[in-house]
Design a protein that fits this description.
With 245 residues, the protein is an alpha/beta fold. The chain has 2 domains: 137 residues, Response regulator (Rossmann fold, 3-Layer(aba) Sandwich), CATH 3.40.50.2300; 84 residues, Arc Repressor Mutant, subunit A (Orthogonal Bundle), CATH 1.10.10.10. The chain contains 12 helices and 6 strands. It has a 6-stranded parallel sheet with strand order 2-1-3-4-5-6, sandwiched between helices. β3, α3 and β4 form a beta-alpha-beta unit. α2 runs parallel beside α3 and α7 packs across α10. The longest helix is centred in the C-terminal third of the chain and has 15 residues.
Length: 245
């Protein structure tokens, strides 16, 4: 196979204060040709300049670390790079903790009991701009969702902007063209939106957004929200189940 057609290798960074965990992740991923751990960090403070230097595709972040905790580390990493793939790693799967990681900018949440194959698959999905969650995290989110309401969505201004287009039925490519963003960035935002509104599909997300405009009104002017959602009342409104690409 020529270099031009060879699949790219995904570079991974592991941020955890335990040497054994970092070494274990590197060993687990060493059996996959398209995924490799290139660097590690023992703290959030150490991780920030290393990410800027090595520019990995995906960063795995332990949530419980001394000094700068995992949530703050994720928040700082997201502010450094909007397209960076970030996955929270934890021994726990409480809904509140998962929600905090998502709100900080994580693309996904895995428990440390994840097997090597699932971890490699999660790295690939994250690098493609998709959200990844372990079964335990998904179950915890579902439970937390049943006790919450739309006020807990905490959409950023950009997410609210994109959520309006998702509700209209726009594809990721259409949203990227309209907003002047890369397709990867839009996929990243859409995965965050789905996680925050508790949806498994774009159809579910669109329904949730249509059902309650309050999360959008919290970050966008009322006139803008009305403009974004007005097409939903038209008989020609497109089906939000259209493929996202």
């Amino acid at each position: 196979m020529s270099a031009a057609t060879s699949p790219r290798t995904l570079d991974v960074m592991v941020v955890d204060d335990h040497d054994l965990l970092r070494e274990g992740v590197a060993a687990a991923l060493s059996g996959f040709q398209d995924v490799r751990v290139i660097v590690g960090a023992s703290s959030g403070e150490q991780a920030l300049p290393i990410v800027a230097k090595h520019q990995p595709h995906v960063v795995l972040v332990d949530l419980v670390m001394p000094g700068m905790g995992g949530i703050e580390t994720i928040r700082r990493l997201r502010s450094l790079d909007e397209e960076l793939g970030i996955v929270a790693l934890s021994s726990f799967s409480e809904g509140d903790q998962i929600r905090a990681a998502i709100d900080a900018g994580a693309n996904g949440y895995l428990t440390k009991s994840v097997d090597a194959e699932s971890l490699a698959r999660a790295v690939r999905s994250t690098a493609a701009g998709q959200g990844v969650f372990s079964p335990e995290a998904t179950a915890a989110l579902a439970t937390a969702r049943s006790r919450s309401d739309e006020s807990t969505w905490k959409l950023t201004e950009r997410e609210a902007e994109i959520a309006g287009y998702v509700a209209q039925g726009s594809t990721n490519a259409e949203i990227a063209h309209r907003l002047g963003l890369s397709l990867f960035t839009v996929k990243n935002h859409v995965s965050h939106i789905l996680a925050k509104v508790g949806a498994q599909t774009r159809t579910e997300a669109a329904a949730a957004i249509i059902r309650s405009r309050e999360p959008l009104l919290a970050v966008l002017p009322a006139r803008e929200v009305r403009r974004r959602l007005r097409p939903l009342r038209d008989s020609t409104c497109r089906d939000p189940r259209r493929p996202g690409n």
